[in-house]
Amino acid sequence: MRFRAKIVDGACLNHFTRISNMIAKLAKTCTLRISPDKLNFILCDKLANGGVSMWCELEQENFFNEFQMEGVSAENNEIYLELTSENLSRALKTAQNARALKIKLTNKHFPCLTVSVEMLSMSSSSRIVTHDIPIKVIPRKLWKDLQEPVVPDPDVSIYLPVLKTMKSVVEKMKNISNHLVIEANLDGELNLKIETELVCVTTHFKDLGNPPLASESTHQDRNMEHMAEVHIDIRKLLQFLAGQQVNPTKALCNIVNNKMVHFDLLHEDVSLQYFIPALS
Amino acid sequence: MPLLTQQIQDEDDQDSLVASLDNVRNLSTILKHATCFATKNGIKVTVENAKCVQANTLTALRMCYQGYGYPLRLFLEEGGVVTVCKINTQDPEDTLDFDFCSTNVINKIILQSEGLREAFSELDMMSEVLQITMSLDKPYFRLSTFGNAGSSHLDYPKDSDLMEAFHCNQIQVNRYKISLLKPSTKALVLSCKVSIRTDNRGFLSSQYMIRNEDGQICFVEYYCCPDEEVPESES
């Protein structure tokens, strides 16, 4: 297995750092999948995550000007690594105004992802800061659990409001209840509801817009105002929203009635999918 | 503060009470468990703690109440996003009547809040009481605490720039449990001016004038009864 890659463009470096910060907020430990064309940050729906899963994908050629990898074998030309997300984002903090960033797979007493940052320097000589991030190589037999989640046909698909607004609403609601109902309809309306013995709070977002329906025929006689809903753990929603420091280029919410909510975001050219299951 | 009841009444004939407010931020920081009194002049929201402290705010708020048994509905709007709260009501307990009337007021001062804010934030929390002294001559207005490390006194002379009004008829020294006064710090932080009055029983009335971003004014009033009899000679 081999992997080495280099970023020299400042904007690409900053974007990569932002993505890494987001991943660190969304998942404490995650899987990094390296393939010839892409990088993926993956969190699969084990019980430990409370059933939450995440799939983040970026095209390597949008970031790296050098990218070489050799997977486990010729037929399985991929590498799956498990790492602590914060280690990567911390290493990238050093790279804010760097001249170049190199990442490679190494073995220094234990397998590592080595991140070296070449710093801009006043003098002609350059300074290099190196971080060795311990990683675990994930064996092939476990790869099947780490595949791109199948997105079921949603009952409602709706564009999200400004995430910062949503986050501040959910933050306040979290003080009142652990459960939240997220519901939306095909008329551009999304509601966040919490209910306890003493109080019911509902926040209404309107005029959000819905993406064009996949198949016109099945939905023709659908009642546009009918809400699809899911009961979810409010902390999971808050964790997802807290990870979005910048408002995404595109943000879609898909609700499968009483089953799960699927968030489909695009941060410029990086896609993020986040699945929160219904509370049982 | 004008209530918009005239306009709203046409839309919501069902409701016994409808009221509206532009900015609830101040109100939300003060309220916890509250009893609401609605009169033609405004709404008084009373919060009690251990039956010894009472805080009243005179503001208007967009609330709808259909009557006994129905939940209180609050409507909040910000940037096109509407939040509706339905709060289940409870049978109110009688609120304490502190029987504090202006005719019994012995001493009264009005201070600019900025002068008190730092003092209150630095109060020695090891002290069980805050002692307030108001006198005709020095120290005029003194806040004292008595903690494990020692006692501290904060004096505000009557000719200080912060002192807007100083009316002292007789020397009074009263102690109040600090734990009961602590909740008033929130109102102090938001306020621009505070009036402190004590009556013949040593009961304390503090009124905080709060001006919000739109220039609207509301008042928060605290009543507190003294902790114990303190001989006047002590200072």
Automatic annotation (TrEMBL), chain A:
The record's listing under Pfam families reads:
Hus1
What Gene Ontology terms describe where this protein resides (cellular component)?
checkpoint clamp complex; cytosol; nucleolus; site of double-strand break
InterPro entries listed in its UniProt record: DNA_clamp_sf, HUS1, HUS1/Mec3
Keyword entries, A-Z: Cytoplasm, DNA damage, Nucleus
Question: What processes does the entry annotate via GO biological process terms?
Answer: cellular response to ionizing radiation; double-strand break repair via homologous recombination; embryo development ending in birth or egg hatching; meiotic DNA integrity checkpoint signaling; mitotic DNA replication checkpoint signaling; mitotic intra-S DNA damage checkpoint signaling; nucleotide-excision repair; response to UV
Give the location in the cell: Cytoplasm, Cytosol; Nucleus
Q: How does it assemble?
A: Component of the toroidal 9-1-1 (RAD9-RAD1-HUS1) complex, composed of RAD9A, RAD1 and HUS1. The 9-1-1 complex associates with LIG1, POLB, FEN1, RAD17, HDAC1, RPA1 and RPA2. The 9-1-1 complex associates with the RAD17-RFC complex. HUS1 interacts with POLB, HDAC1, FEN1, PCNA and RAD9B. HUS1 does not interact with RAD17. Interacts with DNAJC7.
Q: What does this protein do?
A: Component of the 9-1-1 cell-cycle checkpoint response complex that plays a major role in DNA repair. The 9-1-1 complex is recruited to DNA lesion upon damage by the RAD17-replication factor C (RFC) clamp loader complex. Acts then as a sliding clamp platform on DNA for several proteins involved in long-patch base excision repair (LP-BER).
**Protein family (similarity comment):** Belongs to the HUS1 family.
Q: Return the PANTHER family for the record.
A: CHECKPOINT PROTEIN HUS1, MITOTIC AND DNA DAMAGE CHECKPOINT PROTEIN HUS1
Q: What is this protein called?
A: Checkpoint protein
Q: Which organism does this record belong to?
A: Macaca nemestrina
The coding gene here is HUS1
UniProtKB/TrEMBL annotation, chain B:
Q: PANTHER family given for it? A: CELL CYCLE CHECKPOINT PROTEIN RAD1
Q: Any stretches that span the bilayer, and where are they?
A: none
> What GO biological process term is on the record, naming one?
DNA damage checkpoint signaling
Task: Quote the protein name from its UniProt record.
Answer: Cell cycle checkpoint protein RAD1
Cellular component, GO annotation: checkpoint clamp complex
| InterPro entries, A to Z | DNA_clamp_sf (IPR046938), Rad1_Rec1_Rad17 (IPR003021)
Keywords attached to this Swiss-Prot or TrEMBL record, sorted alphabetically, are: DNA damage, DNA repair, Nucleus
* Subcellular location field: Nucleus
* Sequence similarity: Belongs to the rad1 family.
